[in-house]
């Protein structure tokens, strides 16, 4: 350990931009055994590990880095998976530059961060290859059952923790595959779908049941779920696209990001997608304009490049330093040919029924707003028009109106539409009904959904134990 002075930072080999523009394969190769051990050995083993502090899961990062450096990979995986249900996913898609790696003491001292995410990916991929990851076998089976609504990262993390405690768990999901955003939202070049499907099979082999193509409120009522299970967890995520109010916004070829990404991912999975085949959701040969500056916008611009777009622009109303997305993702997109138009606020769309361009107002940055970022302010008379055959709106997501969709007016929600819970227990005002992930906190990171799902599982366990003990105490 402590080799950061003499040993330079070395990321895994990254495929050349020209090559990766042509397919949806992951852009980074894996570490060799010696490469991973060498890079893990750069860790300074801080007394106060800020990497761990700034990880939502509080992963024991210095410990599994040390074990990797010593070649004790099976132990490294045991430590890594003790706090994280999906280390192979987080190692690929977490914005490490904003979390663990961005707060690494070595990074702050100018020596270049330890490549935590890539080593985490290496550890878990090795564990799968070696057969160290086996189905869950609870120490004892419990009689109670839990229904989980939503098969995304939060719901699956909760299911895994509940199954370890011996509960019968059924995950209900509206889609035909388990994984939620991990399957249909995140492109293959960041997260290959076999990685997600492999973990889903593992959960199924562990005794978790999946009810796919099941829409709560349509296929099954929420009341029936409550009657069927001893506790219910709402982990639906947030999928309602935020809209932009501007002249011409209702024209054809102006689409929400998830519609575009889902079509692309379904096509990659081998599904027939009529709107993709017809060209409606296919960027090939088109001038693409993506509006937004988050990670979803980065997924859209980089997917468009791979589909063979004629040109790809990303419009964002702030500058590069104030954008919410990962700086690493921006750099990758620029390498692949995406043009970023900073300080550009869309204010209208040209065209007659079908969009032909995006008019944008040039902005400058004023004083910081409530989030701490500098507020964009218009520059009078500075208007640009960007040619567009397809405009993709990546402005974020809001919750669906669950009380209406489910016919449950008693389900408590906030003024933003998120489910209202007691944050100490993650239980709603409805006894035995819990909620976790984006449906509680609003659109956020996958790693936060995993954290919330694990915490909710612990609270459900406490609730069911207390309920079981109550009759005995009464006697």
TrEMBL record:
Molecular functions (GO terms): 4 iron, 4 sulfur cluster binding; metal ion binding; oxidoreductase activity
The name under which this protein is listed is NAD(P)-dependent oxidoreductase
**What NCBIfam families does its record include?**
gltD_gamma_fam
Can you give the residue ranges of the FAD/NAD(P)-binding domain?
146-453
Which Gene3D superfamilies does the record associate with it?
Answer: Alpha-helical ferredoxin (1.10.1060.10), FAD/NAD(P)-binding domain (3.50.50.60)
Instruction: Name the PANTHER family on file.
Output: GLUTAMATE SYNTHASE [NADPH] SMALL CHAIN, GLUTAMATE SYNTHASE [NADPH] SMALL CHAIN-RELATED
Keyword Cell wall biogenesis/degradation on this protein?
no
Q: Which UniProt keywords apply?
A: 4Fe-4S, Iron, Iron-sulfur, Metal-binding, Oxidoreductase
Segments forming domain Dihydroprymidine dehydrogenase: 21-131
């Amino acid at each position: 350990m402590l080799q950061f002075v003499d040993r330079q930072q070395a990321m895994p080999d990254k495929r050349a931009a020209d090559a990766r523009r042509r397919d949806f394969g992951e852009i980074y190769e894996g570490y060799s055994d010696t490469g991973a051990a060498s890079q893990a050995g750069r860790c300074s083993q801080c007394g106060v590990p800020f990497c761990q502090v700034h990880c939502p899961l509080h992963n024991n990062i210095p410990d599994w880095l040390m074990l990797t450096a010593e070649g004790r990979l099976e132990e490294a995986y045991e430590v890594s998976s003790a706090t994280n249900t999906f280390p192979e996913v987080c190692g690929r898609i977490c914005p490490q530059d904003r979390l663990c790696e961005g707060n690494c003491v070595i990074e702050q001292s100018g020596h270049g961060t330890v490549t935590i995410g890539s080593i985490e990916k290496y550890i878990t991929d090795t564990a799968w290859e070696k057969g160290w990851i086996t189905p869950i076998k609870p120490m004892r089976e419990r009689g109670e059952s839990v229904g989980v609504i939503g098969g995304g990262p939060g719901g699956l993390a909760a299911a895994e923790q509940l199954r370890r405690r011996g509960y019968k768990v059924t995950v209900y999901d509206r889609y035909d595959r388990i994984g939620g955003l991990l399957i249909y939202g995140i492109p293959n070049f960041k997260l290959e779908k076999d990685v997600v499907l492999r973990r889903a099979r593992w959960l199924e082999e562990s005794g978790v049941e999946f009810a796919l193509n099941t829409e709560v409120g349509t296929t099954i009522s929420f009341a029936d779920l409550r009657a069927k299970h001893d506790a219910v967890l709402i982990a639906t995520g947030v999928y309602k696209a935020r809209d932009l109010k501007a002249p011409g916004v209702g024209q054809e070829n102006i689409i929400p990001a998830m519609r575009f990404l889902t079509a692309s991912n379904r096509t990659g999975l081998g599904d027939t997608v009529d709107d993709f085949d017809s060209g409606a959701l296919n960027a090939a040969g088109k001038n693409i304009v993506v509006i937004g500056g988050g990670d979803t916008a980065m997924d859209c611009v980089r997917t468009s490049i791979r589909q063979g777009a004629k040109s790809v622009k990303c419009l964002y109303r702030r500058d590069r330093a104030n954008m919410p997305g990962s700086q690493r993702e921006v750099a990758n997109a620029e390498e692949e040919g995406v043009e970023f138009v900073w300080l550009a606020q869309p204010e209208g769309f040209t065209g007659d029924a079908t969009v032909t361009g995006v008019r944008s107002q040039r902005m400058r940055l004023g004083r910081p707003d409530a989030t701490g970022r500098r507020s964009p302010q218009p520059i009078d008379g500075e208007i640009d028009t960007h040619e567009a055959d397809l405009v993709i709106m990546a402005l974020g997501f809001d919750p669906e109106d669950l009380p209406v969709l489910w016919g449950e007016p008693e389900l408590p929600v906030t003024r933003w539409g998120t489910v209202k819970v007691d944050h100490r227990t993650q239980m709603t005002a409805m006894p035995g009904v819990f909620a976790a992930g984006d449906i509680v906190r609003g659109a956020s990171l996958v790693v936060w959904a995993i954290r919330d799902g694990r915490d909710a599982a612990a609270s459900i366990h406490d609730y069911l134990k207390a309920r079981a003990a109550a009759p005995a105490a009464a006697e």
